[in-house]
């Protein structure tokens, strides 16, 4: 793989992993449209997992203090108002402290459906979903419509401190559908959060925190495979560069998106997904892509 391809794909991964437009869809479509086919489908997936490891680093670094506070609260330590942008020095009621202590366990619950789906559908994701651009385009449009509906009907009155077991389970099930390229992990989880009447900021933060264990699990499994099989010849530099670039771009994207959605809706992403989906369908029929 040429270095410039690794850099371009890493930038795309860093930009699209956290905004709700599907990073896997963009990586697949860019390769198909530009004819970047130096790697086998299995090698492409391995490289994409490496890029996901880069964005995992970005979310860990960005939320490093939040994760420490979440774990400390869950294990019985000091509780502060870490969940959203409210100042941490505000006193919490006993009920609020109880809610804060539950956040780690709710994240764990929400991770289970995605982990199960990833194990059961791993080969389907590799052999079918990644090779059918019409399917990807359809997923882009369908989820865009769901995002629009969620924005329309959500009361958006539930902060992160009021997330329940049911909320976590629904968001976790939504995350499982992100195995399908075009769905978008952040898009599905943010949309599910809005359907559960979370505030937009709460839905985004819960989505980002939820990404940590699921991406870490996928990266560790792939790293275990690579340890046995080794990287393809000439792939060490692209892998390292891809991880670094996706981590830097991912960090900047997280910071921007959290600020953006504090005062803006998902409208721009909804429109983008629909336009991209229509263009991909048109190109698929014109160029006879699958």
Total E-strand runs: 0
Helical percent range?
over 70%
Largest sheet: none
Ends: how far apart?
A: 24 Å
Structural class based on helices, strands and sheet pairing: mainly alpha
Provide the β-strand percentage band: under 5%
Q: What is the mean pLDDT? A: 83
User: How large is the count of helical segments?
Assistant: 12
| pLDDT < 50 stretches | 84-89
Radius of gyration: 19 Å
How many domains, in number, for the residues? 1
Order of helices and strands: HHHHHHHHHHHH
General form: globular
Question: What does the secondary structure layout of this molecule look like, with pairings?
Answer:
Elements: H1 3-16, H2 23-34, H3 41-62, H4 64-74, H5 94-120, H6 122-127, H7 133-153, H8 165-176, H9 185-195, H10 200-229, H11 236-261, H12 267-286
Can you walk me through this structure?
By secondary structure, this protein is an all-alpha fold. The chain has one domain. Helix content is 73%, strand content 0%. The chain has 12 helices and no strands. It has helices spanning 3-16, 23-34, 41-62, 64-74, 94-120, 122-127, 133-153, 165-176, 185-195, 200-229, 236-261, 267-286. The longest helix has 30 residues, at 200-229. It is globular, with a radius of gyration of 19 Å. It starts with a helix and ends with a helix. Mean pLDDT is 83; it is low at 84-89.
Which key features would you list for this structure?
290 residues; mainly alpha; 12 helices
